Amino acid sequence: MRHSKLAVAAATLALSATAAVSVALAQSSAQPIIGLITKTETNPFFVKMKEGAQKEATRLGAKLLTGAGKADGDNAGQVTAIENMVAAGAKTILITPSDSKAIVPAIAKARAAGVMVIALDSPTEPTSAVDGLFATNNYQAGVLIGQWAKRAMGTKKAVIATLDLFPGQPVGIARHNGFLAGFGTAGISATTRTQVNTGVACAQDSFGDQAKGQTAMENCLQRNPNINLVYTINEPAAAGAYQALKALGREKDVLIVSVDGGCAGVRNVVGGVISATSQQYPLKMASMGVAAGVNYVKTGKKVSGYTDTGVTLITNKPQIGVKSSNTTFGLANCWGQ
Amino acid sequence: MTQPATAPPASKRPSLPSLSTLGPLLALLLACIFFATQSDRFFTGTTLSLVLKQISFVAVIAIGQTLIILTSGIDLSCGVIMALGSVVMTKFAVELGVPPILAILCGLAVTTAIGALNGLLITKLRLPPFIATLGMFGIVSATTQIYSGAQTVTNLPPALNFLGQTFNILNTPFTYGAVLMLILFGVAWFFLTHTAPGRHVYAVGNNPEAVRLSGIPTTRLLISVYAVAGLLYGIAAVILVGRVGAGDPNAGQTENLESITAVVLGGTSLFGGRGSVLGTFLGALIVGVFRVGLTLSGVNSVYQILITGVLIILAVATDQFSRRKA
């Protein structure tokens, strides 16, 4: 008896839920539906990207669906999200591919169903797998802090530590190599696919995490106490490096440079924790993507090719010959508050 | 038939060091000797202090994980509970202006309560620990992101950074967090080996039915174990906050596996009832020594992951082997 009552209750609940969903779908069929798939739900960069997309979607009267992988590198989760969004009637899907190659077949299926797919932040391999790419030029972001660091070091001999992302990650490699190229290391170009460690005293993976960055920096300093220039993949890793240096009383005579330009990161530039950082614009990537999606629904015109969403060097110690903006600009343009 | 036979060796265990207790010590010694030949900076006080402070918060989590695994449970939510604790204590202190000590206590209260909730789910709802804590991982991880808006909490009052401060022994700086970790290991060791409730933790892992029949309140014991583990994750959060100088909502995503690694490398059986918290300390040390040692030798850190994987398999194989002999 109890079981059958429970079953009836469950069935009623399921039916009413289905009805609610179909009503919601029917209501929204007139509205352009745009999907945004990020690498994770939790990384602040993607949280801000979602906020930017939502704001633009609300402004343009579009409906935004969001999805994400469970963790960085979760391709299967992103494939599922694509399938669900196509099923939900999305006309445009914006995606930050976790795995640049493995995601390609799922994207091809969506495009075959008439969906415009735009990669945000990271490219697919091949780049032609999507209609367009809106992203930061990560190599250029690295070059800027490399050039700045070269000027800032002056005649002092640099002993470099790099706190990288994790092995084989294209964004991490592009920033790392860009930094070294900007610093003047020979034999690196924007198309170099593997991490170059020429002239680096210590290269460690930080996974972009503050605590792991701190651990990596401590170990690098134990290996070579003369390190005086630190490249970090992002600002949490930079904050970790600073903690490690501070513990040894070395925070004043070591330059830390980074890439990202999040608000907490720029505040650390204000506070002198980070000397210079390259700022990127996730909200812009997302809002441009949403606008392109709405335009596609209205006019049937797809985007194509690569759109550089820009990168700005943020520092309060400008160097001659390296274009930069100060932290007032950086704080006004950082992602979130 | 087989159950009564397992009881006597369990009571004899402390007197005779088995293969699974000597294994981790041997692995640690071999690693140290190897790294000493690779880098002349390895056998220094600084390296020792680095290892201790780097392992401190994972090791404290691993104490809680050891207690739980001894009861033949597991906790997949430990790291994210720590992250939530770190955000609660820092946000309370920085944004609500709660006095630091009180803010820390609030953080500890939250983590202890979530630990107890895990215990309730496992005993009252009879969920397998793996499932209960897997679900809790998602709940706590998302709650932390929502509560913090995915933003790191900085500009902490000095009291919250206390455990990251250092003092010198023979010109080598040690953090108070590392000292607290060593004390907690001492307390946990004493609790498990010299008190009746400590022996009950082993007993529950060996044979919960026998424990229940002998009149020990199993449910209360299990809930207490998970609650104490939650408290330990909160203490780990204080150490983490002191170490990184910030409340970090993105911390704790991998510490569940890292703590299980320390427990397993330390020779504690994942089937419960066998093992020691000192083994866990050795297990955490092994991971820490490899991380520092490989950096000093100039080896890419990806090899640390490889070697840790190999060691885990060796450790569990040793455990199985010693079981078959016993």
* Secondary-structure content class of chain A: alpha/beta
* Poorly predicted parts of chain A: 19-28
Give the averaged pLDDT of chain A, no decimals.
Answer: 89
- How many discrete domains of chain A? 2
Could you tell me the number of beta strands of chain B? 2
Q: What's the quaternary structure here?
A: heterodimer
Shape of chain A: elongated
**Based on the structure given, which CATH architecture of the largest domain in chain A is correct?**
3-Layer(aba) Sandwich
Q: Helix fraction of chain A?
A: 40-55%
Strand order of the largest sheet of chain A: 2-1-3-4-5-11
Q: What sort of overall outline of chain B do the alpha carbons produce when their principal axes are compared?
A: globular
Annotate the secondary structure layout.
The complex is a heterodimer of chains A (337) and B (326).
Chain A: H1 2-28, E1 33-38, H2 44-60, E2 63-68, H3 75-87, E3 92-95, H4 104-112, E4 116-120, E5 132-135, H5 138-153, E6 160-164, H6 170-183, E7 200-205, H7 210-223, E8 229-232, H8 235-247, E9 255-260, H9 263-270, E10 276-279, H10 282-299, E11 305-308, E12 312-315, H11 327-332
Parallel strand pairs in A: 1-2, 1-3, 3-4, 4-5, 5-11, 6-7, 6-8, 8-9, 9-10
Antiparallel strand pairs in A: 10-12
Helix pairs in contact in A: 2-10, 5-6, 7-8
Chain B: H1 2-12, H2 19-38, H3 45-70, H4 78-94, H5 100-123, H6 129-148, E1 166-169, E2 172-175, H7 176-194, H8 196-206, H9 208-213, H10 218-244, H11 255-265, H12 277-296, H13 302-325
Antiparallel strand pairs in B: 1-2
Helix pairs in contact in B: 2-12, 2-13, 3-7, 3-10, 3-11, 3-12, 4-5, 4-6, 4-10, 5-6, 5-10, 7-8, 8-10, 11-12, 12-13
What this model shows, in words?
The complex is a heterodimer of chains A (about 325) and B (about 325). Helix content of chain A is about 45%, strand content about 15%. Chain A is α/β, with parallel strands linked by helices and about 325 residues long. Chain A has 2 domains: about 30-135 and about 280-305, Rossmann fold, CATH 3.40.50; about 140-280 and about 315-330, Rossmann fold. In chain A, strand 3, helix 4 and strand 4 form a beta-alpha-beta unit. In chain A, helix 2 (about 45-60) packs parallel to helix 10. The longest helix of chain A is centred in the first third of the chain and has 27 residues, at about 1-30. Chain A is elongated and about 60 Å long. The N and C termini of chain A lie far apart (about 55 Å). Residues about 20-30 of chain A have low confidence and may be disordered. Chain B is mainly alpha-helical and about 325 residues long. Chain B has helices at about 1-10, 20-40, 45-70, 80-95, 100-125, 130-150, 175-195, 195-205, 210-215, 220-245, 255-265, 275-295, 300-325; strands at about 165-170, 170-175. In chain B, helix 3 packs antiparallel against helix 10 and helix 8 (about 195-205) crosses helix 10 (about 220-245). The model of chain B is unreliable at about 1-15 (pLDDT under 50). At the A-B interface, strand 7, helix 7 and helix 8 of A face helix 3, helix 6, helix 10 and helix 12 of B.
